Amino acid sequence: MKTCEHVTPSICSLPLVEPRKLAANIDRNRESLVRYIEKKWVNHTSLHFYFMQDQPQLKGAENQLQAVRDAFKDWKALGIGLDFIEVARASEAEFRIGFTPGSSWSYVGRDCIDLVPNPQEQTMNFGWDLTTPYGRDTALHEIGHALGFPHEHQNHKAGIVWDEDAVYASFAAYPNYWDRATTYHNIIRKISPQDATGSPWDKDSIMHYQFDAGLILSPTEFRNAPLVPAPGLSDMDIQEALKFYPNNSASQWPKLTPFLSHKLDIMPSEQLDFIIEPDISRTYNIQTFGSLDTVIVLFEDDDAEPIYLAGDDDSGTNYNAKIALRLINGRRYYLRLRLYSAGASGEGGIMLW
After folding, report:
1. Where do the TM regions start and end (predicted)?
2. Within a domain: 10
3. In angstroms, rounded to a whole number, what is the distance separating the alpha carbons of residues 206 and 174?
4. Structure pTM?
5. pLDDT digits (tens, 9 = 90+) for 208-249
6. Are 227 and 257 in the same domain?
């Protein structure tokens, strides 16, 4: 995270999460693609946030709540295809936000629903004032995690070589007081070390920590000078957000017709959206075909916002994604499909029947 003037800050500490288990014999490039994409939401999802003001230890002042609302607005103002809606019940929220002093953190992307299903448990915390320049970047940073973006300084393309003893000593001291496992998880550890799809290192990313001089051996320009990213969302942050969450219109989406296969002609990380308008009320099957890693999610259009109905993620497994559900004549549904990777043939399809 970033600030205009360098000080030794308290910084984000991600929860320790075990990697999702994939097929034992999975190809390393396929695994890398899955890991790169697996925590992202399908585009055009309405995401809901809730402030846990009913729990005294998690309660925040109104100016702190407003700073978080403003940060959600800043992400939305990029023109991304996600919507952010504040709700009055924890059970309706994917993001449940508290303000316990000391540490700021968030679960990453879909971990918010996959790992924290209990509506009484928070998925995001802010531990210091969000009305300062550094605090505003903190809010943007934690929301970035909730959208599925990891720490940028752990990008395997960064090429950062750490003075590991100095890093461990620095983060064991004020103001973070981290043990070695926490420091390793949040700084030393590299994400997706295989040669996988991903953006180049962006030292100005909102997802990047700032670092004191003396912690980095390479790049040499930061040996004797602090690494302090520029404030706010970087150009590459915006590019990555729009890559995963483009704001394309429903008028561009094809219609899925029963018993007609639709060829999937997209690249890894890209998404297709389909419209389904049943002529008959009955149970329908929706399934992908081919050696593909995909996630498919079905929503119903109720004129206010799309309502989640069902989903399936076949990434890293040897089966195809499938949904079987009763659909009603006269209603409109949206199927969203994101591709992780394609098999040796590079071809696949999806069918409604």
Report:
1. none
2. no
3. 23
4. 0.89
5. 988 999 999 999 999 999 999 999 999 999 999 999 999 987
6. no
